[in-house]
Amino acid sequence: MKVDRKEGGYRPLAERVDDYSEVEQTLNENDRMLQASRCMDCGVPFCHWACPLGNKTPEWQDAAYHGDWDMAYRILHSTSNFPEFTGRICPALCEKSCVLAVHDQAVTIRENEAAVTEHAFSLGIVKPMVPPSRTGKKVAIVGGGPAGLAAADLLNQAGHTVTVFEKDNAVGGLLRFGIPDFKLSKKVIDRRLKVLEAEGITFKTGVRVGADLKIDKLRKDFDAIVVTIGAGKPRDLPVEGRDLKGVHFALEFLQQQNHVNRGDKVAEADRILATGKPVLVIGGGDTGSDCVGTSNRQKARSVMQIEIMPKPSETRQPNNPWPYWPMVLKTTSSHKEGCDRRWSLSTKRFIGDKDGNVKQVELVEVEWSKDAAGKWVMTEKPKSAFTVDAELVLLCMGFVSPVHEGLVNDLGVELDARGNIKVDASGATSVPGVFAAGDAATGASLVVRAIARGRETAKGVHQYLMQGK
User: Fold this and answer.
1) What is the rounded distance in angstroms from the CA atom of residue 8 to the CA atom of residue 58?
2) What angle in degrees, to the nearest 10, is found between the helix axes of 29-37 and 109-122?
3) CB within 8 Å of 225: residues ≥ 6 apart
4) 100 φ, ψ to 5°?
5) Are 101 and 322 in contact (CB under 8 A)?
6) Quick check: 420 and 443 in contact, CB under 8 A?
7) b/e for 227-264, b at 16 or more Cβ within 10 A?
8) Dihedral angle, C-alpha 244, 249, 252, 253, nearest 10 °
9) What DSSP letter does each residue of 333-385 carry, written as one string?
10) Phi first, then psi: what are they for 291, rounded to 5°?
11) Distance (Å, whole) CA 5 – CA 13
12) Taking the domain 138-232+400-465, which CATH number applies?
């Protein structure tokens, strides 16, 4: 290859830790076209195979390489409702399966995707597409996250009248209030919402379906309901001292900071702040990384992130070949801003002061081995327990299921063994006319998978609504 992989990179560290603006930089147009030229139009495009949306990557990248931003966007948007979102926050399963990833030189597909969309908006290519006619059918989308927005978009384009109900004061779900602004500017969400509104979708915020709006009325007013409330129940850590002040779920911390950035008022007594404190982040995933970056911006005294699993390898292992997702060490921009990362540690207890504030956390080293049945088993290493200072502890251990209280229980839908809403291939639940998509049905997953499930469920809803037509 004549052109090496070139990434946009990040803004200077000393600059970005003082604000919440997006950390990623962008390449100039010529460099971006050269990066698109690296896509080889493979006979078997594994990038297409790996993408939950089935994006036609070689086709739109070829158009970008030739500077045809209109065609590039149209191809991209034909399979992806919101490439400006995935182009910023998707972990890029496509890149990990790119043929050039065999030599760690994958095409910069994610960055190219974002660049194509930004060109499309700046050139006026993205315009509202108002459906020419309406079917007379009405659909309620409960939850304004990526799955709900994707379903709303396709159902509206099919001619149905769509209303999105959102419990927060702004639409976006975790895109808006879970993902920090330094990864996804909320102006990007607002820009797309203006297009969707102009196309005829109605958004109603601050509405808790099941409380503010009763289920009976919802079912009476709408021909179909799509539940896209996400997997909002976090995994807890029931150890001694869990009730101490200063121990919080990750989303409590992240959502509050996003509300503050938005200009929403938060009572001083309710503020969760890392400022001047030693912070312990429990959980090594992306949510934990977001807590690290936010803690650094709040000027924490120190930040430690622990993970119960062993430290991943820095390169692929023989049992994890291309084109599968690489189980390797991931270091984010937030980690580079300052973080002591440790692995194979389990939390024994939280230790507080006389006023009930967390002050220390007792940790213990663990080892992993397989039992006779081949199942992984964790054991504590003898005499390996130690304590660390922590005046703010953030629990980032994932999510177990959608919240059942209220909407889910009131609808009476059947749940699967993990507590998620049980659906068939079309997204239909056990209750006629009620569908579910995204994390509420699959469990916590990726934004790109939520969008894909929203699209697939929209097709199922459309077929249901048009029966007998």
Assistant:
1) 21
2) 130
3) 139, 140, 142, 218, 219, 411, 433, 434, 435
4) -70, -10
5) yes
6) yes
7) bbbbbbbbeebeeebeebebbbbbbebbbbbbbeeeee
8) 90
9) HHHHTS-EEEESEEEEEEEE-TTSBEEEEEEEEEEEEE-TTS-EEEEEPTT--
10) -70, -35
11) 22
12) 3.50.50.60
Give the domain 236-397 fold: FAD/NAD(P)-binding domain (3.50.50)
What pLDDT is stored for residue 468 in this prediction?
62
- The first and second tokens of residue 387, run together, are 């304590």
Gap between the Cα atoms of 325 and 317, Å rounded: 11
Q: Is 267 helix (H, G, I), strand (E, B) or coil?
A: coil
Measure the CA–CA gap between 216 and 407, rounded to whole angstroms: 11
pLDDT digits (tens, 9 = 90+) for 353-395: 999 999 999 999 999 999 999 999 999 999 999 999 999 999 9
CATH number for the domain whose boundaries are 13-122? 1.10.1060.10
Tokens of 49: 């195979």
Q: How far apart are CA 224 and CA 209, in angstroms?
A: 14
Q: What are the two backbone dihedrals, phi and then psi, of residue 328, each rounded to the nearest 5 degrees? A: -125, 170
DSSP 388-441: EE-SEEEE---EEE---TTHHHHHT--B-TTSSBP--TTSB-SSTTEEE-THHH
Q: Encoding tokens for residue 19? A: 């604000």
Write b or e for each residue in 166-201: b if 16 or more Cβ atoms lie within 10 A of its Cβ, otherwise e.
bbbebbbbbbbbbbbbbbbebebbeebbeebeebbb
The predicted structure's pLDDT at residue 469? 59
DSSP-assigned beta bridge partners for residue 415: 421
pLDDT tens string 42-77 = 889 999 999 999 999 999 999 999 999 999 999 999
Domain residue spans in the chain? 13-122, 138-232+400-465, 236-397
Which residues of the chain register pLDDT less than 70?
Answer: 1, 468-469
Cβ–Cβ under 8 Å, residues 143 and 440? yes
